[in-house]
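Crash report, auto-generated. Payload:
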Amino acid sequence: MEDRYPFADVEQKWQERWEQQGLYTVEDFDGRPKYYCLEMFPYPSGRLHMGHVRNYAIGDVVARYKTMQGFAVLHPMGWDAFGLPAENAAIKHGIHPRDWTWENIAFMRRQLQQLGASYDWRREIATCHPGYYRWTQWLFLQFFHHGLAYKKKAPVNWCPSCATVLANEQVVGGACERCKTPVTRRELEQWFLKITAYSQRLLEDLAKLPGWPEKVKVMQENWIGRSEGALVHFPVPGHDEGISVFTTRPDTLYGVTYMVLAPEHPLVEKLTAPEQKDAVAEFIARARDLSELSRTAAEAEKSGLFIGAYCENPLTGERVPIFIADYVLMEYGTGAVMGVPAHDQRDFEFARKYGLPIRVVIQPRDRELEPETMTGAYVDEGILVNSGPFNGMDNLAAIRAITAYLEERGWGEYQVNYRLRDWLISRQRYWGAPIPIVYCDRCGTVPVPEKDLPVVLPYDVAFKPTGQSPLKDCPEFVNVACPRCGAPACRETDTMDTFICSSWYYFRYTSPREENGPWDRAKVDRWLPVDQYIGGVEHAILHLLYSRFFTKFLYDIGLVGCEEPFTNLLTQGMVLKDGAKMSKSKGNIVSPEEIMAKYGADTTRLFILFAAPPERDLEWSDQGVEGCARFLNRVWRLVNGLLPELGEEAAPGENLVGVNRELRRLTHQTIKKVTEDIERFQFNTAVSAIMELVNGVYQFCDRVPPVDRDPGAVREAVEALVVLLAPFAPHIGEELWWRLGHQESVHRQAWPKYNPALLVQERVTVVVQINGKVRGRVMVPASATPEEMQEEALREPRIRQLLAGKTMVKVVAVPGRLVNVVVK
RNA sequence: GCCGGAGUGGCGGAAAGGCAGACGCACGGGACUUAAAAUCCCGGGGGAGCUCGCUCCCGUGUGGGUUCAAAUCCCACCUCCGGCACCA
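Recovered output after restart:
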């Protein structure tokens, strides 16, 4: 008999058969309730890494489990196929991005099939396919027609190494997310999507997502960064235009002793006094040269410069000196900040450095602040002083009162401000979806008509990171007749940020080959929203926020019926080796190919699911993998060894007692545990429970001679084992299922149900505690009442001995668990 | 600085207020074998006592609290990880 599971043969055999049978194809309308299980699609970088394996192993368990529960499960896979690495490969290795990408896709698709993942490959999509990006372009035009795609000249984050613009989201700590080069600033004409129009809804609707991890919701909340306050207008004597500032603390308005503008603020040039012009110009030049990194670097000294001009505090008519300082950001608020040194730490430091007055306008209730002796700003609550008509008012009340006062006089208004900025989508790159816009001298900016989509990427293009799109050097692409007037015109040569492509792919899976629109509405309504989305936490902000934005927009224009795309979200942890993320530079990469070649897909999957709960980081262990291989061999031997005595289908005997009854109890207990654990995504403990079942059946066989075994009870245990294991280790599950005499895939079986009556034990051991410490245990009938348990516990000689001479204060008895005797 | 999350044996981890350490890895002992591998069985939190069966004490980052009972709940603190960060 084979004593080793021949994984290579078994895996290949079943993968071929599953494909022939179309085991994983799902029809759109088949009467079953739907379940949409989605894993984040990969960038086709070349080959799978362990993070992918983890992601797709988790998704596969969920998809198989839900299928066995009777759902029609949509479980698709595709490729986030546009992006920079393809172009870098072109530059480095002289291979065309398109060819490179399609080769990678072919290789990685093969790897996913080898993993045994249950995808409906008929629904495969790739964002770089014209049949897909045609609709990416079409969706861009919908944004355009609704005024949510616009072009403006803007200071942008520029990566000198990648020679491209980066979205704010792609700048991490002042450096390029991809290559870590410090980001600099440039002024360019760029396309934007107006995500800020959805700030409030993106924030509010987080409350409608109870199935998302708190962590992710908080990260999005911080990213959107809502703050409430007032917009206050400070007139500048001698000028028509005043300075507007946003403040969250209008209650401190009487404490303003200076004003600061961002160096880029348009008013700086107009307001600067003649004698300060040179100094200001020098200051601005220095600020511009500083990269974003050093400018925002930690607690850098705040430097500023008086521009020789004054504005007026609208509440007091007081003269307020105007500074420029690089700590004020043009991108946030109005690019101007009022300085209240007494009640803002940053302003306090700035005022001390430049000798500006500090005026206390909020006094704490328990002491008196003196500007001369203060060592820091007072930012807590208190009572207003030095604040004209508002003296004596509680500062929280004063926020509202002063805002109302400003509004009455037209000096300001209540305002909500967001940190979120519009989404810059232009990329000066080749390998992306072309922005479907034509520039005509006569007609201006003209959208490409829908009938002319897709705007196809030309194949013959030179790849040089020049800072402008390689498409600029491609006359066949650039030169086009204006769609409106027919005159010679030029195409937009920038391509779209790849995050656009991945913001709507989950809709496309429902109708992947649809030609009359981005999707078939009935199919989107059938499948969406995604019931379970699974992927890395690194997408907590970017991808997930953009996808939510797209969905809300599409809902508003009537193209989809849901406002949130992903009902439940599981963010998996990283795969670590020696405590660190696997990376080339650390040389700690474990390749899935090698592991799968050595141990097979089932062992690889099993280990990765068993080693840690899915949300936590997972420490790779070669010995742990070895242990999982050993376990599958153990299952293999157990089931094959029992085959001869199992015979035909047989129901477990009625009213079994003793060991056979105990075996049935173990079987049903395991079904219960595994079901509950999968429901809450505790795959590691689900696998443990299956291991315990295997250990239990081995022990049963060891202790009970064949004549005493109930064949039905044994068959029940073995079949439960195989069926419960199947979502985790689909190949060995299938093979053993057929060996057990079945003629239909294990993956089409109904998920087993446990019988509660069989879980009940006649007698249970309960712990007896004295003052909370375990001092003994007694056997009682499972149905024993607290009183009976107490009686039984107090009859126990050892307990009586320990209680001798003590006064019993009270006794707590928890049925089936314990008796606790409290004594003095 | 602000916001999250986590700290449990040699290791990965388990315990949804009720026997801390399931399951697995590593380790030790035994069986099988000429031998090894594979496999199977048994044993492991720390300390102390002893009639060798068991008994007692201490143990879930630290200190306090709630409770008959706390890894779990509350308060304070320490450490590590993640996110945001001159946000006005």
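Post-recovery validation: Confidence is low (pLDDT under 50) at residues 295-299 of chain A.
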